[in-house]
Amino acid sequence: MDTKELYREILNEHNINPNHKKELDGSTISLNGVNPSCGDNITLNLKVDNGIITDGSFTGSGCAISQASVDMMLDLVIGKETSEALKLAENFMGMIKGTATENQIEELDEAACLQDISKMPARVKCAVLGWRTMKECFETENGSTTAENPECCSSN
Q1: For the residues of 83-118, what is the DSSP string, one character each?
Q2: Distance (Å, rounded) from C-alpha 14 to C-alpha 36?
Q3: For the segment 16-54, what is each residue's pLDDT rounded down to a tens digit?
Q4: Which of 15, 47, 60, 83 is close enough to 42 for a disulfide, judged by CB 3.0 to 4.6 Å?
Q5: Strands ordered across the beta sheet of 29-35
Q6: How far is residue 10's CA from residue 3's CA, in Å, rounded to a whole number?
Q7: What is the pTM of this model?
């Protein structure tokens, strides 16, 4: 099995059988993320206790890339401090932009299978939706809100 086929399998598995696509009772942060160009719409729910992400889920709909990407992201960030989660998000964005080092990409585990998305500009917004929504969750001042995220895919 070649690498591209393996990556396709990982993506399909996270899309068809996501670990984290469900309601989450008792979330401390909830934010809606929207990719208007593709129609992806997710609500990211996180439980954060003393700066550690203790649980997370998402609901909503979208293409295979957006759904698989947010599921892989949650696999990575649950159990981590919010600062570590934000570092992983930076690594992911760097990978998509082509600026991440091999070590940074390795830290992304299965999410590294989305590296070639950078060659498909129309799909980049799908891949980064969950990551940008998580980043915005932690930048939200009151810590618990629901809002659209139309800026989900800007280049900053």
Answers
A1: HHHHHHHHHHHHHHHT---HHHHHTTGGGGGGGGGG
A2: 22
A3: 999 999 999 999 999 999 998 889 999 999 999 999 999
A4: 60
A5: 29-35, 40-49, 52-61
A6: 11
A7: 0.87
